[in-house]
Amino acid sequence: MCVLSRSLDARGSPEVSYFCATTSLFLPPPSSSSSSFSSFSSLAVKLVGSMALSGGHKDRELRVHESLDELSTDLADYIAELSEASVKERGVFAIALSGGSLIGLMGKLCEAPYNKTVDWAKWYIFWADERVVAKNHADSNYKLAKDRLLSKVPIIPSHVHSINDTVSAEEAADDYEFVIRQLVKSRVISVSDISDCPKFDLILLGMGPDGHVASLFPNHSALEEKDEWVTFITDSPKPPPERITFTLPVINSASNVAIVATGDSKAEAVHLAVDDVGSDSPSVPAGVAQPLKGKLVWFLDKAAASKLEGSQFSA
Ligand SMILES: O=C1O[C@H](COP(=O)(O)O)[C@@H](O)[C@H](O)[C@H]1O
User: Fold this and answer.
1) Which residue among 77, 225, 227, 302 is least packed, with the fewest CB closer than 10 Å?
2) Which residues 6+ apart lie within 8 Å of 178 measured at CB?
3) GO biological process: any one (predicted)?
4) Cβ neighbours for 214, distance < 8 A, ≥ 6 positions apart
5) What does R_g of the chain's alpha carbons equal in angstroms?
6) What ipTM describes this predicted complex?
7) Which position has the higher pLDDT, 177 or 49?
8) Integer Cα distance of 246 and 242 in angstroms
């Protein structure tokens, strides 16, 4: 595995270094020609970035994987490590899931060694977004997670906080925020020290080809919501139309956020979200998901990373 690090030098200029763990050698940075990266492109590549932004903080890591199998193993390791650290520090692990392809990629958590080593009884499960449908509906993010993950590990049923599926989208969002507020009061969920928002130990996000994360879609007013923790939409461009979603302030108050994106169809959105595309504001919602005091990790396969600047990750 190779690690590409970006940091700031003493004068504040970006500095890039490359470390190839398989040979334990530090290598000089490749030249800008993409062929210089060819020896890297067949390996799992991690790009670690930690840089100061104007008035802000940015702690971001990109992990680009050779295969979905490798990505799934790395994702399971990452979640298991955060769970262990959080249980050690706080006694619980408050994790928010999304729907979509992410859930299948978490499947290794149900297998050895994770099924035995993870302290499942300490997990509290939430959803960063949910479709407002019955819990047994094929579109339900809860159903997807229950069928593929939660029913296969010893999670305590009362720790699983799904939405109220018997009310309108607006009421479901209000109810869900109320539940989260109670659990912040009892410190099952931490509170952010920079906002009044909940501080989830981990928020796991998928990303659509349009760059949406949770149910925050491009150019949608829900992206601007600053006061609510959970909001609702009734006009999702991707069916079903009615959804509830964590707002950006909640996502960006988490201790850890991971965005998982695979396949060619996501490559353009990954590029727009991750690369500095020369505009003042990122053009896709995934580009504004960045915890203010926490850490963001992108889990990508080579296809999803293929349009990143430098195209060193071309599939
Ligand atoms: O509708 C949704 O889509 C996104 C992305 O799904 P994917 O199948 O393209 O990975 C998902 O993260 C979100 O939770 C879900 O509601």
Assistant:
1) 227
2) none
3) pentose-phosphate shunt
4) 98, 128, 129, 205, 245, 246, 251
5) 19
6) 0.99
7) 177
8) 14
pLDDT, tens digit (0-9, with 9 covering 90-100), for 200-246: 999 999 999 999 999 999 999 999 999 999 999 999 999 999 999 99
> Percentage of the chain with pLDDT > 70?
79
Top-level class of domain 2-301: alpha beta
Point out the ligand 1 atom lying closest to the alpha carbon of residue 236: 1
Nearest atom within ligand 1 for CA of residue 98: 14
Going by CA atoms, what residue is nearest to atom 12 of ligand 1?
A: 206
**Rounded distance, CA 118 to CA 83, Å?**
7
Q: Which numbered atom of ligand 1 lies nearest the CA of 206?
A: 12
pTM: 0.86
CB-based contacts of 216-219 (< 8 A; 24+ apart in sequence):
216/129, 216/245, 216/247, 216/248, 216/285, 217/285, 218/283, 218/284, 218/285
